[in-house]
Write a structure and sequence with these properties.
By secondary structure, this protein is an alpha/beta fold. The chain is built from 14 helices and 14 strands. 41% of the residues lie in helices and 20% in strands. It starts with a helix and ends with a helix. The structure holds nicotinamide-adenine-dinucleotide.
């Protein structure tokens, strides 16, 4: 992102002009959810409204209930009516769902009636098979990164693209006695269509970034990985501008902490992606900064912060809204192809951090460095970002 004041000014003019000749109506369903959800979604809407005003778009919002809020109002975590409303939208922006799992009465209900069942049902109903989690290290938050300075260098910016509906988590499983010994079996299945559709998404996303795909598998052992590699290579032929490399998952886990700068898009199957995306998010610092998207094979997507409903800080006005605001930027980029508008949000977030504003979760740990920054609450952080669009 450009630092020079004049470059920023010139880009802003170009962006405003491009937006002005590209008017759109965005039909967005919001799921405020539980805990800090309503607080952080309100700030993301504030920023979206500012983008719409500046770039001459209009936005129609509809709210639906999910999770605990829906259990309280409707007796179930997600109603068919809410699903139908979500399906009719262009994209869904979600806060988070769930409560304190030890004390909330929602967790005394049977599993299919608990808050999380609503999210699983929604993902399934919308056929969301591609999960995107960016791992971006802001210069200003370098201190939160557990890696050494010489490894971090000028920072890193990668996108973990995880297949979400196949593989080991959805294969047939059983536990039975075999010759008197208790034995558990899990199966890992992928067909070529499931691999092709996520690979296409991966290459499409790479085309919007630095045009490099690292496909991660275990092709030296698993048949499913050998098929994965074959199909990814076939898809790569349609994207000659994108550089493709293959990496074994054990090596990838090592490379993520040895040299994270080398990665642009990491494309991988369900379980490998589950583990690698947590590893990648850990090296960026705060959970309050991490956005995510789940996409299907249209432009439709569900956008949400990576964190949960944080019941410990709900209602206190101190939650970090940045992950949700950055999820809204992902929504503009991937569901609406509004790249300039998404860039404007990301640049505004960076500017606010450069100016030294921090929510409590990203305050420096060392006493001495706290005086260099200004602590703000949820609403103020949303205002600051919105003002810088
Ligand atoms: P959590 O992510 O809600 O909280 C973990 C820690 O991170 C807490 O200390 C919290 O205060 C902090 N935190 C999280 N988001 C923050 C933010 N935006 N700003 C500042 N601090 C933030 O995880 P948890 O405590 O394990 O789970 C709480 C509830 O959230 C559970 O019911 C869980 O099932 C649910 N959950 C929901 C989602 C989702 O909606 N997709 C994801 C994960 C967890």
């Amino acid at each position: 992102m450009p630092n020079n004041r004049y470059t920023m000014w010139f880009l802003e003019i170009l962006q405003a002009e491009k937006g002005a000749c590209h008017k759109m109506n965005l039909n967005i369903v919001c799921i405020p959810g539980d805990g800090i959800g309503p607080e952080i979604v309100a700030e993301a809407k504030k920023v979206l409204d500012k983008v719409a005003q500046k770039y001459n778009h209009s936005i129609t919002y509809k709210d639906i209930l999910m999770g605990g809020a829906s259990i309280d109002a409707c007796g179930e975590p997600l109603t068919e009516e809410a699903i139908a409303t979500a399906k009719a939208a262009d994209a869904v922006l979600m806060g988070s769902i769930g409560g304190n799992t030890s004390t909330s009465p929602w967790y005394k209900l049977p599993p299919h009636l608990r808050p999380e069942a609503g999210l699983l049902k929604l993902r399934k109903s919308l056929n969301l098979f591609a999960n995107l989690r960016p791992a971006y290290l802001y210069e200003e938050l370098k201190a939160a990164c557990p890696l050494r300075d010489d490894i971090i260098g000028s920072g890193f910016d990668m996108m973990i693209m995880r297949e979400l509906t196949g593989g080991l988590y959805f294969g047939e499983r059983s536990t039975k006695e075999v010759d008197g010994v208790l034995t558990a079996i899990d199966t890992l299945t992928y067909n070529e269509n499931e691999i092709r559709r996520i690979a296409i998404k991966g290459f499409e996303i790479a085309m919007k970034r630095r045009k490099k795909v690292t496909s991660v598998d275990k092709a030296n052992v698993l048949d499913s990985s050998r098929l994965w590699r074959k199909i990814v290579e076939e898809v790569a032929k349609d994207y000659p501008e994108v550089t493709l490399e293959h990496m074994l998952v054990d090596n990838c886990a090592m490379q993520l902490v040895k040299d994270p700068k080398q990665f642009d898009v990491i494309l991988t199957e369900n379980m490998f992606g589950d583990i690698l995306s947590d590893e990648a998010s850990m090296v960026t610092g705060s959970i309050g900064m991490l956005s995510s998207a789940s996409l299907n094979d249209t432009k439709f997507g569900l956008y949400e912060p990576s964190g949960g409903s944080a019941p410990d800080i709900a209602g206190k006005g101190i939650a970090n809204p940045i992950a949700t605001i950055l999820s809204a930027a992902m929504m503009l980029r991937y569901s609406f192809d509004l790249d300039c508008e998404a860039d404007a949000i990301e640049a505004a977030v960076k500017k606010v951090l450069e100016e030294g504003y921090r929510t409590i979760d990203i305050m420096p740990q060392e006493e001495g460095r706290r005086a260099e920054v200004t602590q703000v609450g949820t609403v103020q952080m949303g205002d600051l970002i919105s003002e810088r669009i």
